[in-house]
Amino acid sequence: MTDTSGEKRGMQAFETVLSKQDTRVAEFEVHARSPLQMLQHFLHANPTAVPAIVLVLGVAVFSAIVGPRFYSAFNLSLILQQVTIICIIGVAQTLIVLTAGIDLSVGAVMVLCSVIMGKLAVALGLPVPVAFAAGLATGAACGAFNGLLVVRLKLPPFIVTLGTWSIFFSLNLWYSGAQTIRSQDVAKVAPFLQWLGTPVDLLGARLTYGTFFMLGLVAIVWYVLNRTALGRHIYAVGDDPDAARLAGIRTDKVLFAVYVAAGVICALGAWALIGRIGSISPQAGQTANLDSITAVVIGGASLFGGRGSIVGTLIGALIVGVSRSGLALSGVDVLWQEFAVGSLIIVAVTLDQWIRKVSA
Amino acid sequence: MSTTSISPDNGVRRPLIEARGLVKRYGRVTALDHADFDLYPGEILAVIGDNGAGKSSLIRALSGALVPDEGEIRFDGKPVQFRSPLDAQAAGIETVYQSLALAPGLSIADNLFLGRELRKPGVLGQVFRMLDRKTMQRMAREKLTELGLMTVQSINQPVETLSGGQRQGIAVARATAFGSRVVILDEPTAALGVKESRRVLELILDVRRRGIAVVLISHNMPHVFEIADRIHIHRLGRRLTVVQPSACTMSDAVALMTGARAPQDMAA
């Protein structure tokens, strides 16, 4: 039974029949796929295709229903302005979601940072660069706090950020004294904080510096995620943390870096927020938390980690903007806008589950 | 009873990995009880043992995933202390875990270079940290071709779209791609069908042909007896004995590793 004779070595007796087998099986079988399976494979290979198609369809449908009022350069650029904040916060959220986490505190971090920037510059009269840097540092500190709790204490990100959401929001109310800093005061003392709100008129479209800032941020984060080792490691950590660790990746460092980066991006979002609304209110950006998750999910990222793209999040945010604007211009009640966005989320997650089941 | 090691030739060759008296305790459980281990250059050494015999602990100690409480490991004659898998990798010991440790959503090329990506030369790489994707893809393609694994469609397809045997191939390719001297394979055929197992066994023989020593942990006796040069039998946390497949039957080996027979009875 032990196969030690020379000529037989290399194959067990029960395997000798294998030489007569057709060898094609060891290779990729080109089996006939139904159109549905082909679609599933296409979407699996191109995860950003779904939101892109939905966005194009959305624009087409609303253009047909509403007409020029919707597809005018002015309205389309307005949508772009409206989604700027959600998209920036969505970029931060995407980083967290890629590591199989979720950050419920992003909105609170953004508002806290805007209040710090405004209060230091306007109320306390500190130099604007100092106030701005303090805002960024606050964002980094909030992210580091979340990251420490997730990485060191190994708490679930959902619970950590649920807690810090309340903590950061309370700090924000306490520090601001629940007072809004008026837009004209900001403009007088610290116009730099409103700089991203500077309008740019372009062929009938009205954009702001904030829009370009958002696109630049998307480009930078896209580069980091797709063209650097850190980016690949972020995907690997979210995909399979054990595999990443065994491959020699310092998963705790990567995770911590992601939370800090998300905090800083939220602080940049605070800057864009001041530019957008002019004033600095502790009550602003209340919906940014869930809106950012909505943009990420509709953009095709998987809440199980390791799958998703930054371009998807940009498109996801645009889909939300387009459907809100389209429905509003169609004269549909606001409550149905929320209904539509909610339905989009369910459809997006269902689609993600289906795509993930792709057969090899 | 001293462990009688049968060296592959006349005992002149120095072991590549030599471990003496490894001890690892987990509370009151002793996973390694003064275990010895020898691996010679260019050989395939199979490690067999019943469940709970301490095979995994032994392998984890050699691959840096576990730090033994006592004992010493020599690599190429020099004492080494592996604090993490990275230390072992740096020394040239690569491990293919049973779970394969691949990121399913990343591409084949990304997985091959995971944790040791190549950056572009010059400013692009140093300042902008840009990855040299072209070179990595080319090297990945070359590596897979060398190992006869070029049945994949594209080097950029995600690993999750590959079959079990192909994934095993990718994991082996990763372990041999970076100038390693020892590859440890943990149950490489356990999850595979007959045909895929055959390909993996051929892959292991190919790895040996390239001068890399292989440690093969397996429960599959026919596979062990087919490709191993020597068989390390582990029992109750230590090396019971080392046998040569030509001088021992499978039932002898099973009797030894389950304690049905003591090594001294084997003297023939």
Describe, in plain words, how this protein is organized in 3D:
The complex is a heterodimer of chains A (360) and B (268). With 360 residues, chain A is mostly helical. Chain A has a single domain, classed as ABC transporter involved in vitamin B12 uptake, BtuC, CATH 1.10.3470. Chain A has helices at 35-45, 49-66, 68-71, 73-98, 106-123, 128-151, 157-176, 183-189, 209-227, 229-239, 241-246, 251-277, 288-298, 310-329, 334-356; strands spanning 199-202, 205-208. Chain A has a two-stranded antiparallel ribbon with strand order 1-2. Chain A is globular, with a radius of gyration of 25 Å. Chain B is 31% helix and 23% strand. The longest helix of chain B has 16 residues, at 194-209. Chain B contains nine helices and ten strands. Chain B has one domain (17-261): Rossmann fold (3-Layer(aba) Sandwich), CATH 3.40.50. The model of chain B is unreliable at 1-10 (pLDDT under 50). Chain A binds chain B through residues 1-4, 9-12, 14-15, 18, 21, 25-28, 44-45, 223, 227-230, 232-233, 235-236, 239-240, 242-244, 246-249, 306-307, 358, 360, and chain B through 65, 85-86, 89, 95, 97, 99-106, 110, 114-117, 119, 128-131, 133, 151-153, 157-158, 160-163, 165, 194-196, 198-199, 205, 222, 225-226, 245-246, 248-250.
In short:
The complex is a heterodimer of chains A (360) and B (268). Chain A has 360 residues and is mainly α. Chain A has one domain (57-352): ABC transporter involved in vitamin B12 uptake, BtuC (Orthogonal Bundle).
Biggest sheet architecture of chain B = 6 strands, mixed
Q: Which range best describes the helical content of chain B: under 10%, 10-25%, 25-40%, 40-55%, 55-70% or over 70%?
A: 25-40%
- Outline type of chain A: globular
Estimate the strand proportion of chain B.
15-25%
Q: Which ranges of chain B are low-confidence, i.e. pLDDT below 50, for 5 or more consecutive residues? A: 1-10
The CATH architecture classification of chain A is Orthogonal Bundle
CATH class of chain B: Alpha Beta
The overall pLDDT average of chain A reads: 88
Strand order of the largest sheet of chain B: 6-7-8-3-9-10
Report strand % of chain A: under 5%
The topology string of helices and strands of chain B comes to: EEEHEEHEHHHHEHEHEEH
- Count up the helices of chain B: 9
Radius of gyration of chain B: 19 Å
Provide the CATH top-level class of chain A: Mainly Alpha
What general form of chain B does the structure show? globular
